[in-house]
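Methods — Computational structure assignment.
A single polypeptide chain was analysed. Its primary sequence is given first, followed by the predicted tertiary structure written as structure tokens.
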Amino acid sequence: MSRRVVSSPFFKQSHCTGPGQFKMCGPEFHMMGEEEPKRKPSIKVIGVGGAGCNAIADSPFNNIAVCTAMEDTRAIRLESRVLVTAEHIDFMKETSFKTVRSIKYEFKEWLESAVGETDIAFIFAGLGGDTGSYIAPVVADICKKRAGLCVSNVALPFSVEGKDRRCVADCSLTKMCEASDITITYPNNHLLKMVPNLPLGKAFNVMNRIMMVPLLELEKVLTVGDLELVRRNFNRSNSCRLGVGTGSGEYGELRALEEAITSPWFDFEKDRVMSALVIISSGEVEEEAVRRVLDELAKIIPYSKIDYAGICDKELGAKYKVMLVLGFA
């Protein structure tokens, strides 16, 4: 179980501009969970292709599989399944997702019917193969029109998979970034730095769990009122990366931040970061700990706007966890 951290009256008087939870003042900070309407958003989770469907296998939400007949979805708790044929893939190879918006096409109508209306759409796909590369941008474009926030999580191929596959992935990534509000990328090369001794199959299971982290953490804090502000913040960025860290003991929150910010996926200059989202969790989140994390983070990414939240998660005990999503130009 988790809950949002509530501040003391003194802390509100010292550091807040109004009633509510602990709040860092200034135009660069936005505390999630405070905007009206405070209704919890509805969520749909969409796996595209084999890698995307594998990633959502343990998702507890309303799941949609967009896949070929060859891709097994029996282990996934599904709301619906949209079958992709070779003809659909060939058509999308030759057609821009922007063109698909304005034409009558049965496959697009199937996707629109499956997605329906939702507050947040989370898309999962692996780029480089046919289904993920050519179908996922169309799915993202549909979701962006029908949801308050569209978040895409995409895995990028290993270098050893060949130049052609990487080229397809790069081209598709450009489309995904344009079609989505937030696109978080997970290069497979960096996965091996995190779990160098695991067999490849087990390493991919680790990747699936990592890709689910933003969904599981954001579901705890976002309200419908937050969605437009988060969308506007991340419109400043092209694509994003994820970092997660844990820490304990004195200043455990800063140890967690250090581990998160040194993620192998943050392989870019920090002054390129234009947007950031940080969630600080612990069994008992101290307001000063949240402030210290935000103060330190603001020094590391001085040009970024920061969406943040503090969450009490009793399962963590005295340990702190920091999840960072950084969007860069």
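Note: The chain has two domains: 2-39+237-328, 43-221.
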